[in-house]
């Protein structure tokens, strides 16, 4: 390969290479080298610094050979784009890092500096690593910098120095650092991600930069993740342009949040089991996702007319009457997800009326609520106004083991319901009585062990199901008690797709099919007790696919029906 003297581009991404040729420097016209994902045991060959035309070098993996190899970057003055330098623990002398001359590489836009994830205890991770990182100061034109697995307890001073235009900064898994660098002084910092800083217990003045009058003046995105020991965030400055805030998997966090967040648009808080989320810190129009936190409270009555709770889950002290919160202000909430709320029973009772305050609710998703018996308490059901929650288009309920039924008011008065999914609700015996929701088009049911039938339509009113429903797709899986779909034996004429699988006690999908049926596809799988198919198969002029597998007791068509010629 090294005789290809005019070669300009060499792409070896994810190739299972252990080494490159020792005379690799002969490719003097090489401009682009991508070795990302190639496990080069000895790193790049020596004398790669002679490839002075090189513009793209995806990563420099430092090897075991004599000399660190990092000094070979020095003559590569044309490098641009993204450069990852990994296994920096191989650098023995800080002077070698200085020879890399990163500070003069003005065309580099993204720089990743990585030490190995797991180093043995004999490896010194103190002064040497600090000196190496200090010598790897990049050019001020850099737009993105990542530092991973750095082992010293402090960061070099250049990290608080001149601003980097539009800079993105990521600091990950620097587990020995007890405090964060004063990056609040970086006036143009827009995106900051701090992850896996296991020794940091408090974030305070040192983070903002002591003496800095306007810290984080340009910051728009801030993320803290996997901070196992973090306990307090001590307010020390404002975030005037912060739009996105994410705090994840910080189990010991107890403190508060910054008070002045006027531009905040999205908040994600998850895995903070001791953290009480203070809603008063968030402006109107803010979109919230709160997952596995202790509580959601605010001390003063606040009316957030546009606040969007788009996810509430695993809040151990969750109450629909959020403390001090004017629920009547949630008039514009369109999507609500509630999950793993162990104490939640109905969403509507004499004491709690969350659904009442969501007049524009479009999507309702409930997961893992083991004590949720019903969405609406029985004593309240008859008192609900006509058209209650008539705006809901999508309902998804999963793993609510004691849920027995869906409220009549939601099923019959709803004029918008388009899709409904029930997964793992093993106490539900039927979906509706009398009629399916008139606008329902998609119905998916899985793992509802006690479901005996979808619709209790009285059995004698054979026109009720097919004349009012717009159902187009029906999927049923793993409902072991299901015997029939409707007591009348009718299916909606609008149904186009029917799929039934792993329903061992199902004897019949339907007695008959309407003459104007629109069925296009039928799939029936592993229904051991299925004995017959519906009458009227020969009328299915739109049918193009039928698949029946694992139904040992099925008699094809006892009435002599044949499949349509289409």
Automatic annotation (TrEMBL):
<dbReference type="InterPro" id="IPR032675">
    <property type="entry name" value="LRR_dom_sf"/>
</dbReference>
<protein>
    <submittedName>
        <fullName>Putative disease resistance RPP13-like protein 1</fullName>
    </submittedName>
</protein>
<dbReference type="InterPro" id="IPR056789">
    <property type="entry name" value="LRR_R13L1-DRL21"/>
</dbReference>
<feature type="domain" description="R13L1/DRL21-like LRR repeat region">
    <location>
        <begin position="70"/>
        <end position="197"/>
    </location>
</feature>
<dbReference type="Pfam" id="PF25019">
    <property type="entry name" value="LRR_R13L1-DRL21"/>
</dbReference>
